[in-house]
Design goal:
The protein is mainly α. Helices cover about 60% and strands about 0% of the residues. The protein is built from ten helices and no strands. Helix 1 packs antiparallel against helix 2 and helix 2 runs parallel beside helix 6.
Length: about 260
């Protein structure tokens, strides 16, 4: 696949994914019985589209002819288009439902059962991960081949163009309602982690484990805030199951590179 063909193929993927997103938004405003499922699917789809748009920008750049990754993406791109078309047809209301909606009858029903929704989200995650890896690889190659030392302003400009996971930071707007440890609580474990973080001779990983709901995330957020206050936090990324880019590590490095 040459640069022109790659750009056209990626544009077609972006167009189809935007059609799927448009229908999903329609369902989110008209269907009340599956709000959580629709929100999960929409979140994953929007994250997928951001990666595609970055891939499109790269495919349309003058450097695209130098890149080899697009040749290896020929089959995945074609299959992705087939899968997106299947999702679009699944979401597209039937003619009967369209006619009913014109007369004010609520006819839309979320078409994905739980298992099918899970599979569709997994499909989007797989393509997003594959395309993200390809994007990372080619962007790194271009930087290394340029042989130019970028000044700080140019570095910031380049980093700002990288796709990143919204809401990954412990103090991001999306997490403003998430709790921290109250004063004089969890004192022992917090002290233990802070001592570990200050000792360069300690192992590089502190494994905080426990059953769901026992406060691991709350402890981690409290540690992150404390280290930030002391200007000792290098980076952080808070994963969240079922929340698009926050549910996997595809954007972990790029998100932290922007900070």
């Amino acid at each position: 696949m040459d640069g022109v063909s790659a750009a056209a193929s990626v544009v077609a993927l972006v167009d189809m994914s935007l059609k799927v997103l448009s229908l999903t938004v329609e369902y989110s405003t008209q269907v009340k019985s599956a709000k959580e499922d629709i929100a999960r699917f929409r979140l994953e789809l929007e994250a997928f589209i951001r990666v595609l748009q970055s891939l499109q920008e790269l495919a349309q750049s003058p450097e695209a002819t130098k890149l080899s990754t697009f040749k290896s993406l020929t089959e995945p791109i074609q299959q992705c288009k087939v899968d997106l078309e299947h999702m679009w047809k699944k979401l597209e209301p039937s003619k009967g439902r369209k006619a009913m909606s014109r007369y004010g009858v609520r006819a839309l029903k979320w078409p994905f059962e739980s298992k099918e929704l899970k599979n569709s989200i997994a499909v989007l995650e797989r393509y997003k991960s594959n395309f993200s890896i390809a994007l990372n690889t080619e962007q790194t190659v271009l930087i290394l081949e340029s042989g130019v030392k970028l000044d700080l302003a140019e570095q910031d400009r380049c980093l700002s163009k990288l796709p990143y996971a919204v809401g990954a930071n412990f103090d991001s707007y999306e997490r403003e309602s998430e709790p921290y440890c109250l004063r004089n609580t969890r004192v022992e474990i917090l002290s233990q982690i802070m001592e570990w973080s200050a000792d360069p001779c300690q192992k590089s990983v502190f494994w905080l484990n426990g059953m769901a709901g026992t406060g691991k995330s709350t402890i981690a957020r409290t540690i992150a805030r404390t280290l930030t206050d002391r200007k000792r936090l290098a980076a952080n990324f808070f994963f969240s199951r079922g929340r698009g880019d926050l549910s996997h590590a595809a954007l972990y490095l790029r998100s932290n590179s922007r900070k």
